[in-house]
Design a protein that fits this description.
The complex is a heterodimer of chains A (277) and B (357).
Chain A: E1 8-19, E2 22-29, H1 32-37, E3 45-50, E4 54-59, E5 70-75, H2 79-85, E6 92-99, E7 112-118, H3 122-133, E8 142-148, H4 157-165, E9 170-175, E10 187-188, H5 191-198, E11 205-210, H6 213-225, E12 233-236, E13 252-253, E14 256-257, E15 264-266, H7 267-271
Parallel strand pairs in A: 7-8, 7-11, 8-9, 9-10, 11-12
Antiparallel strand pairs in A: 1-2, 1-6, 2-5, 3-4, 3-6, 12-15, 13-14
Helix pairs in contact in A: 5-6
Chain B: E1 7-10, H1 12-24, E2 28-35, E3 38-43, E4 69-74, H2 87-94, E5 108-113, H3 115-129, H4 136-143, E6 145-150, E7 177-183, E8 186-191, H5 194-199, H6 210-226, H7 245-250, H8 258-261, E9 269-274, E10 277-282, H9 303-322, H10 332-336, H11 343-352
The chains are: A alpha/beta (277), B alpha/beta (357).
The structure holds flavin-adenine dinucleotide, iron/sulfur cluster and FE2/S2 (inorganic) cluster.
Iron/sulfur cluster is lined by residues 253-259, 286, 337-339, 341 of chain B.
Chain lengths: 277, 357
């Protein structure tokens, strides 16, 4: 019988420093069978172990179209993430998953897409963004708004540059006031304010929103003000997680388990929650 | 298939002999024992140590299937880097166990648990076994466990098992065998499963007479009449989420978690690494850090929110998800709450409170 708590061993192939406290890890399973079997949807997550230190959930940041390895971008926060940051290429970690529902890729087909991310919130969105890039016929109209505290805190800088150069999509970058440097050519201002300036079409648009709670809160208010309806806005929720498989209870919100029923929800669902997100 | 002879009469000595036989067969026997003026379900090596005169044991049966603390994974003692770091370690033995790194589990027979506790395992089976993800640690122990329950002749004033479908002091739900003490030295034994049949394989026991069966009915009626508590969950519980009564009712709660630890059905846990082992242990949702996120934000920071969550999980969310309440009415949370909070009374007051927006 399969043991749902037993991680599969995987090797860190490559580490990219994104910001002073965020690194992207390219990871591939040690076992060829496991490597082959591992498929996922954008928006799903894995549980990563550093044996002896613990386990923590991380969103899959890579496109599921690239087989053989996957990526997680990890911010150094506490016990496990600090330990992960201490690892080198070649080191072994444990991986369970993929878990969670993932983004509703079928539902958003054919709609205009507006991605709004703050800080490391771009990581799970990046998976979906590349998924859509691969299927431009189904996702012809893509806008990306990404903000971070300072220029230093922007993740995936080389890719952001490519996205800005790609005229078939629209990419807007912003940093908080005071977070700019001499060479900054992007916007300056909080995400909700820049969003208001952009004044996007609400009709037939799906918004995918991911970032720190405070940013999500004010961006959502702004979206409603601009005529978006709750159903159009999709977000990922964060809760503390121990098991990832709907057992331990930690991630519960109302009758849902974020690990199993989420982490992706739309605001029409969120509106019915008894508890605040 | 269970054979025809499902009910029979047995003397106390014969019953003890059967229990002694279990120990002799090197099967783990867990039974009520008396310790520190209270009763506990513990492993016994001598059937003579078993207590017979108890109302219910302090700790529910769940710990024998889902221990308070258990090792989920062992990364390999003394190896650096840990053995699990090396793919070979996984193919060489550790994976041979059906439950991954779980140590081999011994067959066990639990004797003398009460019907509410036997039923609690049926309730716990749903989240642990009937979901997309099957918990192999729970499953392994569950499959290797035989339950011989003892019907309650004298329910306590905190008991409310009869408020539940399938529940009651004589309920056989979840048991492999149900015993009823019908006389000073007389037990009526009912075999309910193949597992149960394996234990009582001696075919020479006497069939119960009509008189005994009549006695059984009377004992059952007497026992049920002693249950004075009842569960009444307000039908519109969800609409009462914002009721101010939650705040006032939770004032005296000290968030100690006793009602969660001693609940027959609460099953929240933590997973943590300690050196070379990954452990899982129970954690009560009344603790603040239960919902503490890495950002430092605590989803249920207020004590009243944590207090209320227990009620909503048991009597609303779990019902929506699994079709039944996460409660069997054992009454332990009422009996052992240090500040004497009675959840049936709280639900009553909530039901009477006005909906507040
Ligand atoms: C679905 C999901 C996807 C995620 N995706 C990503 C991602 O892509 N990238 C990313 O970087 N992060 C992601 N996260 C967040 C990430 O999981 C956390 O940052 C991570 O769990 C932190 O673990 P840690 O051990 O480093 O921190 P912890 O050791 O948990 O420390 C965090 C803080 O919490 C406090 N704390 C922890 N435990 C306790 C306790 N028992 N009692 C009191 N205080 C305590 C500590 O004081 C510490 O300051 C995601 C989270 C979820 C739920
Ligand atoms: S046992 Fe009583 S005091 Fe302790 S957490 Fe439960 S309700 Fe609160
Ligand atoms: S993380 Fe354990 S239930 Fe969701």
């Amino acid at each position: 019988m399969q043991n749902i708590y037993l991680p599969e061993l995987a090797k860190i192939e490559k580490i990219t420093e994104e910001t002073p406290d965020i690194k992207t890890f390219d990871i591939s399973f040690a076992d060829a069978g496991a490597r082959e079997k591992f498929t996922y949807l954008p928006g799903q997550f894995i549980m990563m172990s550093v044996f002896g230190f613990g386990e923590a959930p991380f969103g899959l940041a890579s496109t599921p179209d690239r087989k053989g390895y996957f990526q997680c971008s990890i911010k150094k926060m506490g016990k496990v993430t600090s330990e992960i940051h201490r690892l080198d290429a070649g080191n072994i970690v444990g991986i369970r998953g993929p878990y969670g529902n993932g983004f509703p890729v079928k539902e958003i087909e054919g709609q205009r897409l507006l991605f709004i991310a703050g800080g490391i919130g771009l990581a799970p969105l990046r998976s979906l963004i590349y998924y859509c890039f691969e299927r431009r016929k189904k996702f012809p109209d893509i806008t990306i708004l990404y903000g971070a505290r300072t220029v230093k805190d922007l993740v995936y800088k080389p890719e952001l540059k490519k996205w800005q150069e790609d005229k078939s999509i629209k990419t807007v970058l912003t940093v908080d006031p005071g977070g700019e440097d001499k060479n900054w050519t992007g916007k300056i201002g909080l995400v909700p304010k820049i969003l208001a300036e952009m004044n996007p079409f609400a009709e037939n648009t799906a918004v995918v929103l991911c970032g720190p709670p405070i940013m999500i809160k004010f961006t959502f208010i702004e979206l409603l003000r601009m005529g978006f309806r709750e159903k159009q806005v999709i977000t990922t929720l964060e809760r503390t997680m121990q098991c990832g498989v709907g057992k331990c209870g930690h991630c519960s919100i109302d009758k849902y388990y974020v690990c199993k029923d989420g982490p992706v929800f739309n605001y029409e669902q969120i509106k019915t929650f008894l508890e605040e997100i | 298939m269970i054979s025809e002879m499902k009910k029979f009469i047995i003397s106390k000595n014969e019953l003890k002999k059967i229990l002694a036989g279990i120990v002799a067969e090197n099967i783990k026997l867990i039974a009520p024992v008396s310790r520190d003026n209270a009763f506990f379900l513990e492993e016994v090596s001598d059937a003579e140590k078993i207590a017979w005169d108890y109302s219910n044991v302090v700790k529910p049966v769940k710990e024998h299937i889902f221990p308070m603390r258990e090792v989920l994974l062992d990364f390999g003692r003394g190896t650096d880097p840990p053995a699990l770091d090396e793919p070979e370690a996984r193919s060489s033995g550790k994976e041979k166990n059906p439950a991954g790194n779980m140590p081999p589990v011994k067959e066990q027979v639990i004797f003398g648990l009460r019907p509410c506790d036997a039923r609690s395992l049926l309730v716990l089976d749903k989240p642990f076994l009937q979901e997309k993800y099957v918990d192999s640690y729970y499953k392994e122990r569950r499959e290797k466990t035989t339950l011989i329950a003892m019907a309650c002749l004298n329910p306590e004033k905190t008991c409310l098992c009869s408020s539940f479908e399938n529940g009651g002091p004589f309920s056989s739900a979840g048991s492999d065998v149900l015993c009823v003490q019908t006389g000073q030295d007389e037990f009526l034994v009912e075999i309910l499963s193949e597992k149960g049949e394996k234990i009582f394989k001696n075919p020479s026991f006497a069939q119960p007479s009509g008189e005994v069966l009549k006695k059984l009915e009377n004992l059952k009626a007497d026992s049920e009449a002693k249950i004075c508590k009842a569960l009444k969950v307000p039908e519109n519980l969800r609409e009462l989420f914002e009721a101010g009564t939650w705040e006032t009712e939770s004032l005296s709660c000290i968030a100690c978690g006793i009602c969660r630890y001693l609940s027959a059905t609460c099953y929240c846990f933590n997973i943590t690494d300690e050196f070379e082992q990954r452990l899982r242990y129970w954690i009560p949702c009344s603790f603040k850090n239960y919902t503490k996120m890495t950002s430092g934000e605590i989803s249920r920071e207020k004590k009243s929110a944590r207090f209320k969550h227990w009620y909503f999980h048991k009597f609303s969310y779990h019902k929506d998800n699994f079709g039944e309440y996460l409660c069997v009415g054992c009454g332990r949370c009422i009996k052992y709450c240090p500040v004497k909070i009675d959840f049936t009374e709280v639900l009553g007051k909530i039901g009477n409170s006005k909906q507040e927006q």
